[in-house]
Design goal:
single chain, alpha/beta, 6-stranded mixed beta sheet, 4-stranded antiparallel beta sheet, 10 helices, about 35% helix
Length: about 280
């Protein structure tokens, strides 16, 4: 399906430009500040211990460390899907004072999850729904559950969904069921679903772990493009090569603690050994 067909089938009119986002930020603008963050489950030893870092607009941060180090937990706590045990996660809005989003609940927490979008390794699409509807589900926090059940979305939302799908070369699949897509296609749809929320931060939890090399490079380029539009991107990765190629900053976590935070070019063999131990030989 081309754009004209999509307009005829889906909406009466859609804008003709690519998604020129409203997310543009000054490069040095602080968007998030994590202070003394701890996370533990069932009173066990902390999964995250004394995590501290600031995040600025347009950064692309690669979070690295062996499996079980706490990388995924960090993203879930930032997004609010897992509550923090203690500490602060300060959101810096364009207007007004910073607020601690770790204490939010209900509608306020849902609004934060829209601002801090997330994509996953397993895509989390609804298999039997078409691609366009899966993207529009990213607007759930801005529409009623009843409307979403009957696929009642505004023409503005549909127009933006089409723009995003066109941007990622997925418009021909707009009316195709998600279960019929390849892994790389599913991840592109998942990115569209996150971006339709108009986030200022995008979290990506191992987004290329199940993809082939071609689709890995394609998704990493997309995330890089997103960061260049002023959105802060935090991505969990196992590949040090990808971190050095695409990320402006790396955060290394070992046993729940940050032991490196800086330019990926400064990741020495000594630091990598502290992060990965004997697994260092498996890095690529």
């Amino acid at each position: 399906m081309n754009r004209a067909q999509a307009q005829n089938v889906i909406i009466e009119h859609a804008p003709t430009t690519l998604p020129q986002v409203n997310y543009l930020r000054l490069q040095n603008k602080k968007v998030l500040s994590v202070k003394n963050l701890y996370k533990s489950y069932n009173n066990h030893s902390p999964v995250l211990s004394d995590i501290n870092f600031d995040l600025h607009a347009g950064e692309m941060v690669g979070v690295i460390g062996r499996s079980g180090a706490g990388k995924s937990t960090l993203l879930h706590v930032l997004n609010g899907t897992h509550p923090a045990t203690s500490g602060e996660i300060l959101d810096y809005p364009d207007v007004g004072m910073p607020r601690d989003v770790s204490v939010l609940s209900g509608r306020e927490l849902n609004r934060w999850r829209s601002k801090c979008g997330m994509i996953f390794q397993d895509f989390c699409l609804v298999p039997r729904l078409d691609v366009l509807t899966n993207v529009l589900l990213g607007r759930l926090s801005q529409t009623s559950t009843l409307k979403s059940l009957f696929k009642v979305f505004s023409q503005e939302d549909r127009a933006k969904a089409i723009d995003l799908l066109e941007w990622l070369n997925m418009l021909p699949h707009a009316l195709q069921r998600a279960e019929n897509l390849s892994g790389g296609q599913m991840q592109r749809v998942a990115i569209c679903r996150a971006l339709i929320q108009n986030p200022s931060i995008l979290l990506a939890d191992e987004p290329v772990a199940s993809l082939d090399p071609k689709n890995t490079q394609r998704i990493m380029r997309v995330l890089n493009d997103v960061s260049e539009q002023g959105i802060s991107v935090i991505v969990n990765l196992h590949s040090i090569d990808l971190v050095k190629e695409y990320c402006t900053r790396a955060i290394g976590i070992a046993k729940g603690e940050i032991i490196f935070d800086g330019n990926p070019a400064l990741l020495t063999d000594d630091i990598l050994h502290k992060l990965y131990g004997d697994e260092i030989s498996q890095l690529h």
